[in-house]
Structure formats: C-alpha cells, structure tokens
Amino acid sequence: MTSGPDGYGFPAPLWRLIARRRPPLPRWRSPLRGPWLTSVLGLVLLAGLPVVIVTGLLSYVAYGPQLGGAIPGDVGLLHLPVFDWPTRPSWLYRLTQGLHVGLGLVLVPVVLAKLWSVVPKLFAWPPVRSLAQAAERLTLLLLVGSILFEIVTGVLNIQYDYAFGFGFYAAHYAGAWVFLGAFVAHVALKLPHALRGARSRSLRRELRTPLAATTPDADDGSGLVAEHPAPPTMSRRGALALVGGGALLVAGLTAGQTVGDAVRGTAFLLPRGRTTAGADGGPNDFPVNKTFAASRITVADVGPSWRLQLTGAGGRELDRAALAALEQHTARLPIACVEGWSTTEAWSGVRLRDLAALAGVPEPASAVVRSLEDGARAALTAGQVLDPDSLLALRVNGADLAPDHGFPARVVVPALPGVHCTKWVRSIEFRSI
Ligand SMILES: Nc1nc2c(c(=O)[nH]1)N[C@H]1C(S)=C(S)[C@@H](COP(=O)(O)O)O[C@H]1N2
Ligand SMILES: [Mo]
Predict the structure, then answer these.
(1) If 0-12 CB within 10 Å is exposed, 13-18 middle and 19+ buried, where does residue 330 land?
(2) 403 lines ligand 1 (CB under 6 A)
(3) Counting CB atoms within 10 angstroms of each CB, which of 169, 179, 301, 430 has the fewest?
C-alpha cells in the first residue's frame, strides 16, 4: 500500500516522502491472498495448535520435574503446576506425545500456507506507521520466529540430528513459552478479524467454485489483498486441497510410528526406530532406541556376574536366576518415546512393588533406577512404583530380553515416558522420604 488515509500520524509532507521512497519490494499478486484464506487457515491452526502446546507442556510434567526428571531441570519462572503423572490409562503418554509430535508435523503444511498467505505484510511500506503497529509487528516477529524455531528443533530432534549445538529440551521449552505468549496475544488481537474474514465467503460455495470463477477478495485494508491481482492459476478449493493433501500425506507418513506392526514400514519420518533387535517377526522385533553397542556396556557386565542391587531399609543383591524365581507378572504395556513413536509389547518380570518390599520399603516415596550405562538414571514416583503392572522386566513376548532391549533387566511402567524405562538396570534405590 503506497498511500495512507491520513498519513498514519506522520506530518503529511513526510508521509508523502516516505510513501514515494518505497524501495523495490516484491509486489505480491496472487488473487487468492486475502482475508478469507488467511482466516480459514488461521482458524484451523487455532483449533490444532493448542493441542500441540498442551501436550508438549504435559510431556514436561510427565518427565517428573518434582523428582528432577525433567529437562531443563531449572526453568526459573517458567515452571508449571506440577502433579504426579498418572499410570492409568497405560497409553496416556503414548496418546499425548503421539499427538504432540504427530499433530505438530501434520500442521506444518498449514503453518507454511498461513505464512504464505500473509507474506505481503512482511514487506509493507513504510515498515512502521505507529507505535501500536510497531508493537503488533514485534509480536508477529516473535510468533513467526518461535513457531519456525519449534518446528525446526522438533523435527531435527526426532531425526536425532543435533545440528544446532545447544540442548534441544531447554531450547524447545523456552521457544514454546515465547510462542505461547505471542500466540495468545495474536489470537486476542486477530480473532474478531478471523471470524469476520472466514464469514466473508461461504466455505460450501468456495468448495464448488472452479478456477474459472475464482475472483480476488475485495481490498479491505488488511494489507493481504494484492493491489493488482494476477489472473488466478488455482481456485481456493484447489489451494485448500493442496494444503489438506500435504497434511494428509504427512499424517500418512507419520501414523505408522505409533500404530506400529504392519504399517510401521510406512513411517518414513521415523528414524532409527526402524531398527529392530532380533529375528524378523520374533519376540524382540520392535524398535530400538539406543542399541547395546551404543551403550558402551561390556558383554561381561551383562554376563553371569551381573547382580541387581536393591537399596532401601537394607541392601540386597539378586542375580538373574533369583529374580526369575520371584513371582512373575506379565503386562501388555507401551514404550512411548518423546520422539513420538511407540510400540506395545507383552512384558514379563518382577513387580517393582515386590522389589520395594524386598528392599524393606513397601511404601516408598520414590525410587531411583540406575543403569549399567554411564549416567543413565531415572526417578519414579510412589504411584509408578506401586502400580501392579510396573515391572522390572526380564522377558518380552515370552523370550528373554534382547541385549538391545535391556537384557538382563529393564524397567517398564504404564504411561511412563519411554526415556525413563531404563534398560540394562544395575540398581534400584527405594526412598522412604
Ligand atoms: N540405559 C538406557 N535406557 C534407556 C535408554 C537409553 O539410552 N539408555 N533409552 C530410553 C528411551 S529414550 C526409550 S524411548 C526406550 C526405548 O526402549 P527400546 O529401545 O527397548 O525400544 O528406552 C529407554 N531406556
Ligand atoms: Mo525415547
């Protein structure tokens, strides 16, 4: 836009000067850009993004910040109201984290289309017209910057590509708060416009309007509509189909990582998770996160000399035969990774609550599990130790655990984030306070 109705508060001669000095910025000409398309895409994001935000924050809680289990540990003012993450339903984290990653990926084409639809505003001239408008542009910078940052860090993380050289969790968590603040401000400012924009055309009629009958929106001063629109090369329904098709394609390429089994092969965005331990179709044939080889544990460490150390009121050591002689319990439980993939298997072993009783702490306040792997450690809440399906698993699907899945013993707890289902367990410490 090269003229302002009243110069936006600039003295008139100055305004004319600035307006005439417009540098050779691109002139966007798509006739599809306008309040209707931007509003429709915005309302889709308004429905979907809160789910991504809430499930992301829930993942932070599920990691157990109260037991020092969350990353980043010290979040200063950004701490959430923390509660003990439940163990029921056992697929709770599988659902919340599957939604966080899955829906987050599915919405990427919608976010990109929304950015495409508003890009002329980035090149508005003059760049700043008033204090209020400068403030609004600043929130937009934070909004766009943070959502792109969250998408890029999130996608790199699920591909195990730590190219960014800083801690993923701290960055993604801080970015989430920037996004949340900017998103709330943006919705508060724009919701009335979005509702009006979406009502400016009938969706049903647009879905029946072919390319030949596609006309530009009327210029409403929103800065979205092209001043000199080019002839359309695509109808609005075509644009929606393109975005929807992109979202469906991403959904199709993602769903397999949590639906699992036969369709896991279609999960093209699933990284190393496609590696499986053991024979094809065998009991240990399901995704492996860190392999035994990558854990740097020696074969001797998991050989006949392996002992489980239990500490609590007293100390105890059990070898694998002694563990296998205790009452065994089988439960079908998911391993649900923060990266969005999950797999449900039948695990057998000793109940954690039986081990707590053996250690002389039948009512533990918490427990700390340590692995043979250097630095691998996880804390469990009382509820997670006492759930009747919480196991120190020795076997999976009727066979001994493969080394890649944590032989000699691993923790599996219903609804616990996969990262805390410690493999190659060395010790469990049951704490009474
Ligand atoms: N000792 C140890 N335990 C671990 C891990 C690890 O790297 N080291 N990875 C965790 C993560 S992030 C997940 S998702 C699950 C995956 O279990 P799986 O490899 O048997 O599928 O193991 C968890 N247990
Ligand atoms: Mo994980």
Answers:
(1) middle
(2) no
(3) 301
Walk me through the domains of the chain, giving residue ranges and CATH numbers: 26-257 (no CATH), 292-431 (3.90.420.10)
Range name among 34-48, 55-69, 277-291 with the lowest pLDDT average: 277-291
Q: Which helix (H) or strand (E) holds 429?
A: strand 425-431
pLDDT at 275: 65
332 SS3 class? strand
Cβ(329)–Cβ(391) below 8 Å: yes
Sign of CA dihedral 62, 63, 66, 72: negative
Q: 171: which 2 tokens?
A: 């960055």
How many Cβ atoms from other residues are within 10 Å of residue 265's Cβ?
A: 10
Residue nearest to atom 15 of ligand 1 (CA): 418
Is residue 372 within 8 Å of residue 424, measured between CB atoms? Answer: yes
| pLDDT at residue number 416 | 98
Pairing of strands 425-431, 308-311: parallel
Q: What is the mean pLDDT of the chain?
A: 92
Question: Is the shortest distance between the CB of 247 and ligand 1 below 6 Å?
Answer: no
Overall average pLDDT of the 205-218 stretch: 97
* Ligand lying nearest the CA atom of residue 273: 1
Q: Which residues of 88-110 are buried (b: 16+ CB within 10 A; e: fewer)?
A: eebbbbbbbbbbbbbbbbbbbbb
In 3-state terms, what secondary structure has residue 270? coil
Cβ(405) – ligand 1 distance below 6 Å: yes
Closest C-alpha to 48, from 271, 268, 243:
243
For 272-280, what is the mean pLDDT?
66
Q: Which alpha helices (DSSP H) does 260-399 contain, by range?
A: 292-295, 320-325, 352-358, 382-386
- The DSSP code for 391 is E
- How far apart are alpha carbons 69 and 62 in whole angstroms? 9
- The token duo for 227 is 């001043």
**For ligand 1, mutation pick of 270, 289, 344 (most atoms within 8 Å of CB):** 289
Q: Is 289 in the pocket of ligand 1 (CB under 6 A)?
A: yes
Write the single-letter amino acid at 371: S
Give the list of residues 6+ apart from residue 45 with CB closer than 8 angstroms, or none: 107, 110, 111, 114
